[in-house]
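Human
Can I borrow your eye for a moment on a structure tokenisation matter? Give me a protein, with the fold worked out from its sequence. Write it directly below this note and I will take it from there.

Assistant
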Amino acid sequence: MTTPDDSPAVLTHRPLERDDAARVTEAETAAFRALVASLDDVDWQRDTASAGWRVREVVAHVGGQYEEFARVGTLLRRLWVARRRYRDRIVLDGHNQVQLDDTADRSNAQVAAQLDVFAAAGIRAVRRMPAPVRRAPVRLFFPEPPLPEKGMRYVFDILAARDTWMHRLEVARATDREFVVGDHDHEIVAQVVRDLDRQWPGPAVTLALDGPAGGTWQVGSGPSAGIVRADAVEMMLHLSGRAGLDLPPDSPFGNARVVF
């Protein structure tokens, strides 16, 4: 940690409005789809950082998520099945497994096609989602784990793009593909830091994240006690609970985690 004098201008924490969130999600799904289109049959079988999931399972999960945005009935059916088929798992994990069960007999090309169809359809559905649905409590569908916001708006506007982004990173690394960073990646990173700031328990710290997706933010309130520098992508891996960033034992971000 160095002194605050080394820090560039600090960016503000700005929540995303519906249209801005949809544009970010559109850009991220386009990047994910482009990566999937480049995969060969061997790539689809490679293991990823998501425990127990190959690339195929990751793509099926992401496609299933946007399918549920477009078809709410599909989400409700999967939740119903999960509660009965996977009683030993939390609802979220059981639901994710049902997504995979639904695609188990499909070819890799069919799994990719599901993603192509429903990525666009799901985002269109979110744009039209009425306010009461956006305000509906997440716990009605997924009682655990707790999220920084109670309403489904947070799932639609923040978590969808974030989850897709992290899975794209996993697939890129598992298949030795380039992780392509565009303008929207910075906004996804910024929303992660915003959530980190909202739950920050300690003294204020300036977080300077390097790379095209990075920036500099203050985490916590009051005068900054110092600055922590790290690569933006590696810090996202760390905050998600995945291996990546080798922080010093006394780092203020050593145990920090954000929902992905």
